[in-house]
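Morning. Coffee machine broken again, so started the prediction first thing and wrote up yesterday's gels while waiting. Chain of 223 residues, entered below exactly as on the submission form.
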Amino acid sequence: MRILVIEDEIKIAQFIKRGLKEEGYAVDVAADGEEGDFFLSTNDYDLIILDLMLPKIDGLTLCRQLREAGRQIPIIMLTAKDTVKDKVRGLDSGADDYIAKPFAFEELLARIRVLLRKKDSQTVTTQLKVDELVMDLLTQKVKRGEREIELTVKEYALLEYLMRNAGNIVTRTMISEHVWDINFDTMTNVIDVYINYLRNKIDSGAERKMIHTVRGKGYFLKK
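Came back before lunch.
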């Protein structure tokens, strides 16, 4: 999952980025509303963490512009203002959630997980399941049948994206946009390497292979 953090306070932005990357998210950071708007026009994101008070284009305006343009990306409004009036303004502008500074990082993570689950389904779920392959989104444990599979942070992120798109072909570009950040070098074979890592861990020894390559197009996880 790829997240855009639009925050002008460098320490807070880097704190959020570091914490989210440790959890397996791909993260880009914009320092003002104008830069954030540019990132949103050139990249595909699964969620936005948006500060209310931003230079150039403030958070409320940017949020409203996104909704008026029909963009339904989940948005968490992040701000030092904690009055009911400010929360109402943020939610009325189109934000899905609102969290005040200072905040507990665990709470931010929980809110992110809830919004990403809601984005994929009308009912909140804590698991992704494709045939006998099960991913617990809370504990981040993965099993195929009774066998528990140990994954690195990046392997987990890649498998999550494949499972959320099970049965559909995902291209290398789509994978890079959702699993890696803006600094990813698309000319490398890193994606192919990580796909092979997953194959070795998920399909090794199994009669039924789940991860397939579509020559010239990309990959898909078979349902």
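The chain has a mean pLDDT of 90. Going to sketch it on the whiteboard this afternoon.
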